[in-house]
Amino acid sequence: MILDHETFSIERQTGYIVGTFHHNVDMEMMLRLKPQMERILPQIDAPLILDLGAVHFLDSSAVGIIALLFRHTQSQDRMMMIAAANPQPDAVLSMVGLSDYVPLFPTLEEAVAALKHNP
Amino acid sequence: MRKEANMIFPLRAWKNDPSVPRRLERCRQELRYQLQPYFSRAIQERVLLATHEILGNILRHGMTKPGHIHLDFTTLAGQDCWVLRDDGSPFTRFAAIWQEVVENADRHIMDQGHRGLAIVARLWPHAYYLPHSHDTYNRFVLPMAFGQDNVPAFFRMHAVGKVLVAESGKA
Fold first, then answer.
1. Long-range CB contact pairs, B108-114, < 8 A, 24+
2. Minimal CB count within 10 Å: which of A85, B20, B33, B81?
């Protein structure tokens, strides 16, 4: 386990890393989470899949965390994917332009399968 | 929405809770409950997200915290508007910051601060702010018919005039 936070965990799998949001993120959680995130960023050294299945309301706080991870994976020339986005998060990701750069998959399993076909 | 009567949500349920996240979440819940009978899903989601971001700014960053916040659907100069009124201290540099986030929303969303305002700007680029109006309330005004072209269908308002009319007659 790379990060085990009440809001967000990051776990290494064979050949990829999965980040899981456990519920909606708010600004105060994001401010507590961000220093920990910045410390563990160097450990994100494989393709990253973000599981948004438990998020039903995505606001600027969560967008900030996703943008931080996106910038890191870009700087490492690694792929980032998003899985299981519910309708509101899906629309926000589209509106802020992240879905132009980050492929979205209906489920985590489909994201993993796509990664294995296109490592 | 009926033109003769504004819909006003005084947000009683969360007013005494000092936790900003809980207040915002309760506001979202109460607002969704109030909006559901009258508005399409797209309008609900659009109003909820913008209100969440603006209230977060007011509650976290206002120099003097507001004692009262009112959320109104009303008509201003013939235009249906969603208006957030608060009696806290006004944001003095708002105009310059708003212009900057409207012009550079992408950069603010991906790299810089004011991310919440940048999201509001994406949803409502024609929104405007009236600090300390005639009744000493600040007003954040979101005109309902503008700013739809570049948002995902999930947030897009169709046939605004009809959708805003309360079919159940409860408004």
1. B109/A60, B109/A63, B109/A67, B109/A96, B109/A97, B110/A67, B110/A70, B110/A71, B110/A96, B110/A97, B111/A67, B111/A71
2. B33
Q: Which value does ipTM take for this structure?
A: 0.87
Q: Cβ atoms within 10 A of the Cβ of A80, count?
A: 23
Q: Which among B24, B49, B155 has the least Cβ separation from residue A26?
A: B24
Residues in chain A with CB shorter than 8 Å from the CB of B122 are 95-96
* A70 contacts A48 by C-beta, under 8 angstroms: no
Of B49, B60, B111, the CB nearest to A59: B49
What would the pLDDT profile of A14-62 be if each residue is shown by its tens digit?
999 999 999 888 877 888 888 899 999 999 999 999 999 999 999 998 9
Residue count (chain B): 171
Identify whether the C-beta of residue A44 lies closer than 8 Å to the C-beta of residue A74. Answer: no
Yes or no: say if A97 and A89 are a contact pair by the CB < 8 Å rule.
Answer: no
Report the gap between the CA of A32 and the closest CA in chain B (Å).
13
Inter-chain residue contact B154 with A64, CB threshold 8 Å: no
Residues of chain A neighbouring B149 (CB-CB closer than 8 A): none
